[in-house]
Amino acid sequence: MLDRISDKIAGVVRQLSGKSHISEKNIQDSVNEIKIALLEADVNLRVVRRFVNRTIQDAKGEDVLSSVSPGQQFVKIIYDRMVQLLGDERQDLKLKGPDTTSVVVLMGLQGSGKTTTAAKLAARLSADGRKCLLVAADLVRPAAVEQLRLLGESIGVGVFTETNTSAVDVARHALVHARRELFDTVIIDTSGRLHADEEMMEEARRIRGAVDPVETILVADAMSGQQAVDVAKAFDEAVGITGVILSKFDSDARGGAALSLKSVAGTPIKYIGTGEKPGDLEPFYPERIASRILGMGDVVSLVEKAQETIEVAEAERLQAKMRSATFTLEDYLEQFTRIKKMGSLQSLVEMLPGMKGAVDADSIDEREIVREEAIILSMTIDERRNHRIIGPSRRKRIAKGSGTAVVHVNRLLKKFDKMRLMMKKAAKSKKYQAKLMSQLGV
Ligand SMILES: Nc1nc2c(ncn2[C@@H]2O[C@H](COP(=O)(O)OP(=O)(O)OP(=O)(O)O)[C@@H](O)[C@H]2O)c(=O)[nH]1
Ligand SMILES: [Mg+2]
Questions:
Q1: pLDDT exceeds cutoff 80 at 432
Q2: What pTM was computed for the model?
Q3: Which of 172, 189, 301, 354 has its CA 20 to 30 A from that of 109?
């Protein structure tokens, strides 16, 4: 369904990724084209504005213009923002373990695909080994019960039905039945209305109150575009929903719903319906959809390449500093994020040529890292840039500010001095690399 929006945005991306030079005007023009594509796809205006502003902001903030591969880097920014728009991470149903009964209630407007989706979900969860029970709690449309019964039969899942009663009672009785018969998953199909009116909300609230579902899912029709977003908002306010399943994603809808839901209604899309058959339900992966919109299977590798380029550039910058002994405490501090990510000083040392794999990650004292970071954080910018100005009184202040003792500050400064020297030598000679390692305490 994203073909049209993808065509346009992919065109922009293709142009950008080949560029070795980008001007501010390029950024502006590209973002404008994306903006038009999003608006044409019926994406909420506020969402588009925010996307546009943030993308431009990021592009300027990350110095795309002066980077090694500006095109790739800019595409990465667009991609990251698009993923964020779609909801960051894949959100699964939060079902409980098989010893208890998890209830999932499906709600939505008439014809949005609730009954079909109920069967799709049951088929999927059964394949995952869960014991599912479908519940026909739509007593408004005469044929609804029979529709679900037939669907259940076709996928081999039991269907709980009851006549001459209310939807709330059906749901309640179904739950009692499910607990007795040890079903671990109960999927309740409810009735739809033409509009999200108060009567519908009231019924939804009562069903919810009666069965205490772990998931209250809105089934929204992707073809209804902005309406799907409004409906999600209304349901969330009136009943409270935990997620959305976007049906009819296989249609030629313009995509606005998928792209606006998370930002406007704050509700994650958990699955997409991609056809009429029980097997046509797919988990919603924001990254994959973003890649599809940006138009290339290989946008992912492009993004990785951009990431690598950033790392290579960073390594080169650091190496130059190490070689010339202009490596400051400020640089050292910057590396702590990296060090923490790797859980060791390994990453820093490995930036030196010939040092890859040379350090044993287990041999590092984590407490020391935490202490050093606290000490540097207590320094002023001037002190970080030139540690030689740190005399006795400053040392006392820094120790106090970081909750350490002056001996710790002394030790760090001494170590850092030596480290700088060693780095300079190590960058040139192998012999010193071993020495540097012991200097770093590894
Ligand atoms: N192409 C396509 N069709 C779908 C999808 N999901 C549902 N449908 C079709 O949409 C129509 C309505 O689906 P239902 O499941 O009956 O919708 P409902 O929300 O239960 O409708 P009511 O009970 O009348 O409110 C049916 O013809 C389905 O086959 C989908 O993901 N893709
Ligand atoms: Mg139905």
A1: no
A2: 0.69
A3: 172
